[in-house]
Amino acid sequence: MAIKIVGCFNESTYFLGQLRDHQKSLYQGKLIALKSPCDTRWNSYYNCFHNILKSKGALTVCIFFYL
Questions:
Q1: d(Cα 23, Cα 4) in Å, to the nearest integer?
Q2: CA 53, chain centre distance (Å)
Q3: pLDDT value at residue 67
Q4: In this predicted structure, what is the pLDDT of residue 23?
Q5: Separation of alpha carbons 24 and 43, rounded Å
Q6: What distance in Å separates the CA atoms of residue 31 and residue 21, rounded to the nearest whole number?
Q7: How many CB atoms neighbour CB 64 within 10 A?
Q8: Strand, helix or coil at 27?
Q9: Going by C-beta distance under 8 Å and a sequence separation of 6 or more, which residues neighbour residue 4?
Q10: 4-13: long-range contacts, CB 8 A cutoff, minimum separation 24
């Protein structure tokens, strides 16, 4: 499910822009990149899930407000 969320935001420039705006306002100007994992590196899956958890607040706002 997390990979689908990352893919959805990375495919839409509008929703990715909205996510970045919410991240800037919630995290004092910091942006957290949502990267899709690659199949050969298990660390990339960890980083994908970790970044989703770090940006949980901004994702919640985007999902409930815009969808």
A1: 19
A2: 9
A3: 62
A4: 93
A5: 26
A6: 9
A7: 8
A8: coil
A9: none
A10: 5/34, 5/52, 5/59, 6/34, 6/35, 6/36, 6/48, 6/52, 7/36, 9/34, 9/62, 10/34, 10/36
- Residue 42: phi, psi to the nearest 5? -70, -25
- Integer CA distances (angstroms), 2 to 15, 28, 30, in order: 16, 24, 21
User: Would you write out the chain's pLDDT as a tens digit for each of its 67 residues?
Assistant: 788 888 888 898 998 999 999 999 999 988 998 888 887 778 888 999 999 999 999 888 887 876 6
How crowded is the C-beta side of 8, counted as CA atoms within 13 Å?
Answer: 13
Tokens 């690659």 locate to 38
CB 22 within 8 A of CB 29: no
Q: How many CB atoms lie within 10 A of CB 12?
A: 12
- Measure the CA dihedral 41/46/51/56, to 10°: 140
